[in-house]
């Protein structure tokens, strides 16, 4: 009987040891499987559409800064991050950086605006947590005018839902033990349509020091095709990638060649471009502080700032491709050995 008990104990010990080894091997295997394509493929046209048909619906009343529809929008974003288990950098369930009425109104002469909020979510870096990669999009639009809802599906519902899907992909990577080396701040800014006010407020009241902010990848209108590209829809305009950092521009080019092969159009990156788009979206408030940026943009179209900018007109396959490009670029910036070098400071 004694021999049987000893043999049983020995077998149990061997089994436990084998089980622990298998668990360690599985965990190690997971950590080695850090191919970003695994996570980029979770960004789908279907999921982007599911979000956008809610976010750009009449229920959200055009998301005018400080008004009831915009409050619905920020709560939609907050609920998404809570449900995905993506933390707030502010702690607990507080995902709102308050932007007070006094600030908005003082910066928008002749217009009294209600309190508003930026929405912030955060994945902490595994090796360089104090270095921050910002991915941004503006959450607001034009509201209701003359009884018509300005849904803002492309402007900037497309960038907003892209940011949600990118955050989800990074979270899945983190859950697999492949979290980014640098921290990532997912920043939804308010008041863009009032003069880039939410991003201005953030850069004047940063949650993380601007000196530690590596780059801002800003997404503003990536769901449509402009007249210039009717015959070549697989494109995106890049603006500002080379303004402050040669390295960021080259990284962006290399990432696109490696993963996506989208036609990168630099027409609006020209210093002499009369549209001056470089100065007209939220990345510019980061660029003013010598933080390298890339602005992703599909150009304007007949529905730009019209009540006809609705979710049924979005090209979701293109939105998927462009969103994956931003994800891959963020992945490379967040995981490279050295932070992006600024060699063209203002």
From TrEMBL:
Residues 1-22 form the signal peptide. This is Peptidase M28-like protein. Gene3D superfamilies: Zn peptidases. One of its GO terms (biological process) is proteolysis. It holds the Pfam family Peptidase_M28. Keywords: Signal. It comes from Tenacibaculum skagerrakense. The keyword Ligase does not apply. The keyword Signal applies. It comes from the Bacteria. One of its GO terms (molecular function) is metalloexopeptidase activity. Residues 118-328 form the Peptidase M28 domain.
């Amino acid at each position: 009987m004694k021999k049987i008990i000893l043999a049983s104990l020995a077998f149990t010990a061997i089994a436990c040891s084998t089980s622990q080894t298998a668990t360690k091997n599985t965990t190690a295997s997971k950590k080695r499987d850090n191919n970003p394509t695994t996570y980029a493929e979770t960004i789908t046209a279907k999921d982007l559409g599911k979000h956008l048909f809610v976010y750009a619906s009449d229920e959200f009343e055009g998301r005018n800064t400080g008004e009831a529809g915009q409050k619905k929008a920020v709560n939609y974003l907050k609920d998404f991050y809570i449900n995905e288990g993506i933390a707030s950098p502010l702690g607990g369930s507080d995902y709102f950086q308050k932007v007070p009425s006094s600030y908005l109104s003082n910066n928008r002469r002749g217009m009294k605006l209600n309190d508003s909020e930026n929405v912030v979510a955060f994945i902490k870096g595994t090796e360089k947590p104090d270095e921050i990669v910002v991915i941004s999009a503006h959450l607001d639009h034009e509201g209701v005018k003359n009884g018509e809802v300005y849904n803002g599906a492309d402007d900037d519902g497309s960038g907003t839902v892209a940011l949600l899907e990118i955050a989800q992909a990074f979270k899945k990577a983190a859950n697999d033990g492949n979290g980014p080396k640098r921290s990532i701040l997912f920043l939804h800014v308010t008041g863009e349509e009032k003069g880039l006010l939410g991003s201005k407020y953030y850069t004047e009241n940063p949650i993380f020091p601007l000196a530690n902010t590596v780059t801002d990848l800003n997404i503003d209108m990536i769901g449509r095709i402009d007249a210039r590209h009717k015959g070549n829809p697989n494109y995106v305009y890049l603006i500002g990638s080379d303004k402050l950092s040669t390295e960021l521009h080259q990284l962006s080019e290399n990432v696109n060649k490696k993963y996506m092969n989208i036609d990168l159009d630099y027409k609006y990156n020209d210093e002499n471009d009369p549209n001056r788009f470089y100065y007209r979206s939220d990345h510019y408030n980061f660029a003013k502080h010598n933080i390298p940026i890339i602005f992703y943009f599909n150009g304007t179209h007949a529905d730009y700032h019209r009540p006809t900018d609705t979710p049924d007109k979005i090209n979701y396959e293109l939105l998927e491709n462009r969103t994956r490009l931003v994800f891959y670029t963020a992945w490379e910036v967040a995981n490279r050995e050295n932070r992006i070098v600024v060699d063209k400071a203002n």
